[in-house]
Design brief:
By secondary structure, this protein is an alpha/beta fold. The protein is built from 12 helices and 32 strands. β22 and β23 form a beta hairpin.
Length: about 475
């Protein structure tokens, strides 16, 4: 059997702020282990191959803001399988995303079997996950959808539930239930035969397209037209933006799973007991990560004395803790969060307050990734900004100009190749140049080692949008 893993990679993870940001959400963070949650989702997909199951291609559905993060993290994995990256012009929930993936898969194989999983979940036991998923794949037939239900460890109001029957490996799904109140969740756990809905589905692409056409024909019509009018470049496939935006927003559960019987579908369930977590909060991290003898989880430069039951994560600075307990302490370059562990679920409400005066801190870290490398804001004021810029080996920025700002560049590591109004110059360590506003210019690293420069911007406006691009290797406007 040939399968097509579909990795849905669009969430923002606000409950893990300030680690997770809109442009750098939790799936791209190394929260557990040496790889990111996104990379772990790819690794789990590859592990599904055996003598009877072969991966045809991997489809990743993400958005413009995350596209180069996806490429960078895929490159680290050194995959030998075909991978396609599909870009949503606008977030429309999971039903349109899956519809686009199903149409893409049918372009390769009309009988493709989709293995649909989120990109931001954690699974501790890969062997048990693989066994459950392989059994689910083998159970897929025409008009049969198999979902993986999570064996619940507690009554939780943050998940939907799946009510099932049967004591065999592949069970019959009776109903899907929305996120309950605590009393109802407790009753379901006591009753048994209820699993958490983990948002993982295995089905034929034609089964999904037929079902969504019955449920919400406007989704199929809009996405189908958008996909037929797609643009494809070296890395990405983009459906037509305006046609895509005409699609209604809906979830896989609401659109199809909860109404499956109406569409003549049979839904089966494979129960997963593999240390699964959606890592949707610091509470979830507290449940999974190993603790020291005092119940603490420390990452980064953390020093503690008489500290118990505390999560502390340091990104840059030293965090020193003395005589505290039951806290969450998160340090990033631009923010510090100190929270009571018993009130961790309120971080979402805190984020709403931050939207009023500190919206930029919800969108980007001070270190911002770009397809050519990254930059980090060191200091800024009303009419100046100082950046540290790293350009990857054999990479270059766009050929561009600025309307409002001047730029001073000093090379601190490597060798820079610079074009100013068509003239090429070379700068080495401790050498500098000045780029006046309006001058067309480009910074390139033609070496096999990294290039680092310090950039000082001055002018009436020092904003990232002050860029006019004339040429760009990465297809940006």
């Amino acid at each position: 059997m040939k399968i097509t893993p579909v990795i849905l990679c669009g969430g923002s993870g606000t409950r893990l702020w300030p680690l997770s940001r809109q442009h750098y959400p939790k799936q791209f963070l190394k929260l557990l282990g040496d790889s990111t949650l996104f990379q772990q989702s790819i690794t789990r997909a590859i592990a599904l191959e055996n003598d009877g199951i072969q991966i045809e291609e991997i489809l990743i559905v993400t958005n413009e803001n995350h596209r180069f993060l996806v490429l960078e993290q895929l490159d680290e994995l050194k995959l030998k399988l075909p991978v396609r990256v599909l870009l949503e012009p606008e977030a429309k929930n999971t039903a349109p995303a899956l519809t686009m993936a199903a149409l893409a898969a049918q372009g390769t194989n009309l009988d493709s079997v989709l293995v649909v999983t989120p990109a931001d979940h954690y699974v501790k036991n890969l062997h048990q996950y693989t066994q459950a998923m392989q059994a689910a794949i083998q159970a897929v037939q025409d008009k049969v959808i198999v979902t993986l239900g999570i064996n619940p460890t507690r009554p939780d109001t943050g998940f939907g539930y799946i009510y099932y029957e049967g004591d065999v490996l592949i069970k019959n799904v009776l109903t899907f239930k929305e996120k309950p109140d605590l009393k109802t969740a407790q009753q379901m756990i006591e009753q048994g035969q209820h699993a958490w809905n983990g948002g993982m589905f295995i089905l034929q692409s034609k089964t999904w397209v037929d079902a969504i056409a019955q449920s919400n024909p406007q989704i199929v019509n809009s996405i189908n037209k958008a996909w037929k009018n797609k643009n494809t470049d070296q890395w990405f496939e983009r459906p037509d933006s305006e046609l895509f935006k005409q699609s209604p927003s809906d979830s896989i559960d609401f659109a199809v799973m909860e109404k499956a019987k109406e569409f003549g579908l049979v839904v089966k369930l494979a129960l997963l007991d593999a240390g699964w977590s959606d890592l949707g909060s610091f509470d979830a991290l507290d449940e999974i990560e190993e603790k020291d003898e005092d119940g603490n989880i420390f990452k980064g430069d953390v020093v503690s004395l008489n500290t118990k039951n505390t999560i502390a994560i340091s990104s840059k600075k030293n965090v020193s803790l003395l005589g505290i307990s039951d806290l969450i302490v998160i340090e990033t370059a631009d923010s510090i969060l100190v929270a009571n562990k018993n009130d961790a679920q309120s971080i979402k409400e805190l984020v709403k307050l931050l939207e009023k005066n500190h919206q930029s801190m919800l969108i980007e870290h001070l270190r911002v990734n770009r397809p050519w490398g990254w930059f980090e804001i060191i200091d800024e004021g009303v009419n100046f900004k100082v950046k540290r810029i790293q350009v990857n080996p054999e990479a270059k920025l766009s050929y561009q100009s600025h309307q409002f700002r001047n730029e001073h560049w000093v090379v601190v590591k490597g060798k820079a190749t610079i074009i100013q109004d068509g003239n090429e110059i070379m700068l080495e360590h401790n050498e500098s140049t000045y780029i006046k506003k309006g001058v067309k210019h480009q910074l390139a690293n033609n070496e096999k080692t990294v290039l680092e420069i310090i950039e000082v911007q001055t002018g009436s406006k020092v904003i990232e949008d002050d860029i006019v691009r004339f040429e760009d290797l990465y297809g940006r406007d």
